[in-house]
Design a protein that fits this description.
By secondary structure, this protein is α+β, with helices and mostly antiparallel strands. The protein has 12 helices and 12 strands. It has helices at 5-53, 59-69, 105-116, 144-197, 213-268, 273-295, 297-300, 314-329, 350-371, 401-404, 423-433, 460-464; strands at residues 73-78, 81-86, 94-99, 123-128, 137-143, 310-313, 334-339, 345-348, 375-384, 387-394, 437-444, 447-455. The chain is rod-shaped.
Length: 478
């Protein structure tokens, strides 16, 4: 109970109310002391006036007047003359004098607290203004013990009343907080626990209902989070199912391609010059398709196979890529250009590098054709010290702003109708496996430029991979 929010709030409320009552108690006791002394001055004034009316008062009556007033002596100043009106023997010497004509709060509080904690009986002198026009000044002497007893009695009553008020106030606040805050918070916590039991069930997503603004904002944020998480879990399940389906298709397709590979041996034996020119490329394409089928599932396992790092001439890999793209371009007005030094030798996996370049060039070609205007795709390579920088640029329409936030995310940012959004995701992972980076350098209405950065030397980074970087958060085109 005490560790709960409502229990701690109850305790804090009681403590704070008591502190507030204590702050009220101190000036209240000081005011009570002042009223007590003023009442003694008024009684003494009445007794003095009675004596003025008849100066032949019997001593026993004079003693009765002093006892009724609660004082020992009464001095009244009238017409600049100070006159001892009533007197009786003092049990103790006068300890202190207090002038009530100085009504400042701090001195009154200080004197009241000092008297409250002074346990020794003393006699004090009190000076004040007479009531009405009875004189210029009235002065009395009295004992402090009755004053202290009255202050203690008054203080106890104040504390008791404060305690009752504190308890009632704390209880009301406890009930109010429990209804307005604790219950909605418990509702949110309970809903989170129910959702955690089965996060894939969209019926368990919270529906904001709180009347308190802050709690409702928390519910709305939780609703958004749970909705995104449920969608992500469903997508993960679909990806797992897709991986299983691809595994079956890949298995059968590999068998078909293996059979096709056998027929290419006979095609190579043909004496037709056109067949002899195209047969090697056909053999290479079928071989790559077989290898791709064997490694398709690795993406579903969240990793591509480790690259087989060997020296490779970039112009050879790029030549195969551009030859295949020229066949795909056909009659479209898309030109291909390359600016790669013949001696450029990379340490890379030739098959994976072919896939990366093929994806980027194919994306550029599809973007230009989709716009319906003539365009150009340019591939260049430069030595930038520790890295090789391979740039693939196009004059296409650029990537749409909304799709930029899904760059390198599979099944999220395909900008081509029917595209799955896998091209850039796969390419980024392959480059990362080489210890390099795939970067989007530029994309607007004038075109798009991707940069492949590969380290010149093969080290641990080349075997373990590095982080994919991006200049902007943009999606792939496939």
């Amino acid at each position: 109970m005490l560790n709960s929010l409502s229990g701690r709030f109850l305790i804090l409320t009681t403590v704070f109310v008591m502190l507030a009552e204590i702050l009220i108690f101190v000036p209240s006791v000081a005011r009570f002391r002042e009223d007590y002394l003023l009442s003694r001055l008024e009684r003494a004034q009445i007794a003095a006036l009675a004596l003025l009316a008849d100066d032949m008062i019997d001593p026993s009556l004079e003693e009765e007047l002093l006892r009724t007033a609660g004082v020992f002596n009464v001095v009244l100043r009238r017409d600049e003359a100070r006159q001892l009106m009533l007197s009786s023997p003092l049990p103790h010497p006068i300890d202190a004098t207090f002038d009530l004509r100085d009504g400042r709060a701090l001195p009154l509080i200080r004197d009241a607290m000092a008297r409250l904690f002074d346990f020794e009986p003393k006699v004090i002198r009190v000076i004040g203004n007479p009531v009405g026009e009875a004189g210029l000044l009235i002065e009395v002497t009295l004992e402090t013990e009755p004053l202290r007893a009255a202050m203690i009695d008054y203080g106890l009553r104040i504390l008791l009343l404060s305690a009752v008020i504190s308890v009632i106030t704390a209880l009301l606040l406890f009930l109010a907080v429990r209804r307005l805050l604790v219950r909605p918070i418990k509702h949110v916590v309970g809903q989170m626990q129910r959702y955690a039991a089965n996060p894939e069930d969209s019926r368990r997503i919270i529906t904001p209902s709180a009347g308190v603004t802050e709690i409702r904002q928390a519910e709305e944020a939780l609703q958004s989070l749970e909705t995104e998480l449920t969608q992500a879990l469903r997508q993960k399940e679909r990806l797992a199912q897709l991986g299983s389906a691809v595994a079956k298709i890949s298995h059968d397709l590999r068998n078909i391609l293996t059979s096709a590979q056998l027929f290419t041996d006979r095609i190579e034996a043909s004496e037709d010059p056109g067949v002899q020119r195209l047969a090697p490329r056909l053999v290479n394409s079928i071989t790559r398709a077989v290898n791709l089928c064997e490694t398709t599932l690795t993406y579903g396992k969240a990793e591509e196979p480790a690259p087989r790092m060997v020296p490779v001439r970039l112009v050879d890999v790029l030549g195969d890529v551009l030859a295949a793209e020229r066949l795909a371009i056909g009659d479209a007005e898309v030109s291909l250009s390359e600016d790669v030094p013949e001696q450029t030798l990379l340490h890379a996996d030739p098959e994976q590098l072919h896939r990366v370049l093929s994806n980027l060039v194919r994306n550029a070609r599809q973007a230009i054709i989709a716009r319906g205007e003539a365009g150009e795709i340019a591939i260049s390579c430069r030595d930038e010290g520790a890295d090789w920088a391979i740039r693939v640029s196009d004059t296409g329409p650029g990537l749409p702003p909304r799709a930029r936030e899904y760059l390198f995310q599979p099944f999220q940012g395909g900008t081509r109708k029917g595209g799955a959004g896998l091209g850039l995701a796969i390419s980024a992972e392959l480059v990362r496996g080489h210890g390099g980076m795939l970067i989007l350098e530029h994309s607007d209405e004038t075109g798009t430029t991707f940069v492949i950065r590969l380290p010149r030397e093969v080290g641990e980074a080349g075997r373990t991979g590095a982080v994919v970087e991006k200049a902007e958060t943009l999606p792939e085109k496939t």
